Structures are given as structure tokens and as C-alpha cells.
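## Example pair
The file below holds two records. Each record gives the amino-acid sequence first, followed by its C-alpha cell line.
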Amino acid sequence: MVAFILRRLAQGAIVVGLAATIVFLLIHLAPGDPFAGWIDESSLDPVVRSQWRDAYGLGESLPTQYLRYVVNVMRGDLGFSLSLQRPIQDVLVDALPNTLLLMSVALTLSFSGGILAALAQARNTGRFGDKAIGGVAMLLFSVPDFLLAMLVLAVFAY
């Protein structure tokens, strides 16, 4: 059992590492730099832009930037949000209570709905109610989560 848990933890670490690497590379493959989106290009002095690039380490080679990124993440330093002008760790701490509330409500509703649907199916085994609930459940399982979430938002928004 311990070997299974350790193997799963190792697999999880590999998946997280690969995801972080892919995201890092995709961000660096995008055109422009982080300052392009929120600073008027014409009003920014090239010297200031160069100083900012040096301060954030954007002038270094890609492997050096990646190594610094990995070391900082391992230390718990997630960086600084240019758009919010705050450390990312503070942004996450502020969003955590609402995220936990939303997650707990969603889990409670989904567990309750699943138990009620299972009880209704068990009570109507082989009849129309059993087949209807099974069909609706199959439909909901086959719809991607993000699409289902947008549909639910659209329904409750109106």
C-alpha cells in the first residue's frame, strides 16, 4: 500500500512538472512581453522598458529563466502579478475562501443529487423512471465540464 501511494505521488509530481514546463514554454512562445498588454508602447521609454525586462529577468536565456522559475516555485514564491500589482500568493489567498465555498456547495449538491438519483433508480428498477434517469445521467457525463458549467451559468443568469 505504501509503495502504491509513493508511486502515485511520484506520478503526480511528474504530471505537475510537465504541466508547469508546458505552460512556461507556451507563455514564452507567445509574441511580445508581459509589459505589452498594460503599457502604452508609445509612452514607454525604451530605457525604462529595458530596465524592467532586466528586473524581471526577461533578458536572460530561456533555460536560466526556467531554472529561476522552478527554484522560486519550490520556495513558494509564485511571482508578481503585473495586472493586479500584487504578489500572486496574496491574490490566491484572497480568492481561496470564495473558491472553497463554491467547491463545497457544488460537491454537496452533486453528492445529494447523485444519491437521490440512485435511490430513484433503485426504486424504479427496469421501469421508465430508471431508464430516464440513466439517460439523463449518461448525457450529463458525456458533456465536458466547462461546457456544462457555461450552460448552467446561462440558465441561472436568466
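Second record, same layout:
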Amino acid sequence: MLEFILILVCACVYAAVHMGNAWLFQWLEVSSHISWVYLPAFLRLFYILVLGRLNGFLAIFVGGLILNSSFDEPTFTAIFNNVCSGLSPILACFCFERWHRRRVQLSAWSDLLQLTVIYCLVNALVHHLSWAALDPSQFHERLQLAAMVVGDFLGCLVGVGLMKAAIDRFGLPQGGSHSPPLN
């Protein structure tokens, strides 16, 4: 029950940060799904790293469902966008683990930065490939792929910096060698 409540709270935080980002950076929006600064990109990574893959995915997906009413798009496209949003950080972690043959160390700046770059590329590619296949109307301008990568990177950089500062200040739970759960 507590896990369910945590997922719902995280989903609401995700939706609120998305709406706050849209309000704060409205002048940097390329479309309703792309901004030159996108702070919720960090939450996607954070949820996967801290809550685990399944619970993180659920928090992102449910948060996306909360947001669906604010997008003017078919329900199937909206749901598929939520799936892409939840799967992208999982795929990025998988790529990092395969490349390095180990899990991400949350206390290592270089790991967090590398994961951020991988995530930003994977997220933009996954979304754009899905739009090409399912809803080409999502394409608004030529630079939107680059805008999504940069926006996700800047949003992640802000969040990762705050997370790293908190880890340095307060430490990690269970000592300093915490590995994110794989569930």
C-alpha cells in the first residue's frame, strides 16, 4: 500500500513539474512535448534510479496519464508517448550497464553525466521514432530532435546537479555503495 501511495505521489510531482516547466519555459517551447529546457527529464531518470525500473516506469506513466487531458492528441498517441517516456530512462540504464558492465554509481559524477547524455539521446530517438511510425503530425520543425536532446540535457543537468549536491551533503542510504534496484 505504501509503495502504491509513493508511486501516486511521484506521478503527481511529475505532472506538476511538467506543468510548471511549461509555464516557466513557455517561451522556449517547440511543441507541447519539446522544450529547450525540460526539467521533468531528470525526474524520469531519478524515478528509475531510485524507485526501481517497474515502480519508476509506473510513476512516469501515471504522471503522463494525469497530463493527458492537457494535450490535444489522440488517446493512443498520448498513451504511447507515456510508454516512451517511461521506457527511455530504462533503456538508457540498460545501455550504460552494457557499456560499462556495471550499474550506475549514484555517487559518481561521471556515471551520472554519462547516463544523462545516453538518456537524452535515447529519449529523443525513441519519441521521434514512435512519432514517425504512429503520428507524423508531431513533427513541427526541423530542429525539434536537437531541441529535445538539448532540453532534456539541460533539465537533467539541473536535476543531477541538485541530486549530487544532496548526496554529497547527506550521503546515500545504506552507506555509499547503493545500487539502484532492477525491478
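Notes on the second record: Helices lie at 2-24, 40-51, 53-67, 75-100, 109-134, 144-170. The chain has one domain: 2-170.
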